[in-house]
Amino acid sequence: MKCVYALVSVLMLTAPALAPEEFVYKISGAPVFSMTHPDGWEVLDEHEEDAKVRPAGVARMPPVVSSRPSVGQLWYGTWVVDKIDDFEDAEHYLSSLTEHLFDDVEVGTFETGVHHGMDFRYYDGTAVYLDAKSSASQRESVEFFAAFFKPSDHGVGISLYVGLPSVTEQYRDELQRSLESIRPVENTGVDR
Fold first, then answer.
1. Residues 122, 145 contacting (CB under 8 angstroms)
2. Per the confidence metrics, is the pTM higher than 0.85?
């Protein structure tokens, strides 16, 4: 019996660690990009919400895939706006979504390049979160990053992170790995 316990212990020590969960983002059932979310983070897939009935005349927002750790206040979401084909329009789109949420936005890093064969732009910086429930003196400074990428011929992907500086520092490596994992897909066989 001791031999069995020893063998199980050795196998557990040499077994690979659980890999973070791979997710494939689809538009109309067709895979567009894949990414991994940090291991153990809760993943919310708004594609699952698509079946809900919307009131007449209300446009469908692009489904967002967001994830978060069990501890720490942050928001990290990724989606594709399939009606936008260039980065400038995507930047205006994102600004229109966030203009009522943030003030005193200061961009730090700005990079452009190619990532896994996709054109991309990356920004990071700081802002003041405009919580409607808080007074002006209680508004908190947050850090953000926004990455824009072209996973296909149609649409621009957006990956946006917002969190308190202490939370950013705590999860910086996991966020960076998740962002770096984004890649275009033809058909990965992963069905989500």
1. yes
2. no
